[in-house]
Amino acid sequence: MIRTDDFDYYLPEELIAQTPLKDRSQSRLLVLDKNTKTYEDRIFSDILDYLNKDDVLVLNDTKVIPARLYGHKVDTDALIEVLLLKDLGENVWECLAKPQKRVKIGTVISFGDGSLKAECIKLFDMGICHFKLIYDGILVEILDKLGEMPLPPYIHEKLKDKDRYQTVYAKNPGSAAAPTAGLHFTNELLEKIKNKGIDIIYVTLHVGLGTFRPVNEDNIENHVMHTEYYEISEESCKKLNDAKAKGKRIIAVGTTSTRTLESNYKEGVGFTPKCENTSIFIYPGYKFKSIDALITNFHLPKSTLIMLVSALAGREFILDSYKHAVDEKYRFFSFGDAMFIK
């Protein structure tokens, strides 16, 4: 049995980054060698020193939508917060509603000037509801006007520039949270990476409830991952399969890119173009099939994400590295510093 408590660590609250740095690429970078079990302290722009010509860098180009909405029940005027998590098609969205006890099937919530309404059509546990959205016009434009960026609950500062919770290459709207490992890249740094002969490949995974849901099981094998939607294009698959065939190093940027690649890759088949949901849960004992290295942020204690990086580099080594990061006062979580596990 692998216990959730085995992935706990001490983190002083003051190390949780509340605001992004002025220059994205000046975050600190802890470089981990998973083979020699050694690490070194660098700056994120130094990532160039660790990327080799012919490496392949895989980025998640999802775009965060202003998915947090505050509205009123049309019958009682009670205040309800709704977080859009996943587009289920035909204007039905999976959402988190707070407080859920005030929401019943048939409840209608009006947002802002009433240009957006949501009718509850299904109720589930842990605050999850399905809402039918009612509006005229283009939803993305309405959300831009009425919605807020869905910053994680551990960030208490107001975000002055909402683009800072997007990667510079964000393209496909649909996420309820940013793929935060990508927040460290600037356009200038990406240009330098390309000029070094490194191929940049894009995949899309819309980050959903898995980011918000803690592991409540004592035995991690009993934890059920929420599904998230991903896409890999034919062009990306062709480049990835070519990289595999030539023995090139595939470096995932973020746990979302990692989960996309590991979900898609099949031994003897390779990568195939797909648009589908994944609920892959990666924890120690898992054998990676598609990636060789990972650029990532520092993750919450006892989260599925610290379990994923522990599967790649070893639990004890990861926890030792995290202790070093705490001792050296690295900044943690979404707006925090980065790791490169090579």
The CATH homologous superfamily of the largest domain is termed QueA-like
Instruction: Give the structural class.
Output: alpha/beta
Shape: globular
Q: What is the name of the CATH architecture of the largest domain? A: 3-Layer(aba) Sandwich
Rg for CA atoms: 20 Å
Q: Order the strands across the largest sheet as they lie in space.
A: 2-1-17-16-14-3-12-13-15
Number of self-contained structural domains: 2
* H and E string: EEEEEEEEEEHEHEEHEHEEHHE
In the CATH scheme, what's the topology name of the largest domain?
Answer: QueA-like
Major beta sheet, specifics? 9 strands, mixed
Tally of helical segments: 6
Unreliable residue stretches:
none
The CATH class designation of the largest domain is Alpha Beta
**Distance between the ends:** 28 Å
Number of strands: 17
Mean pLDDT: 95
Strand content: 25-35%
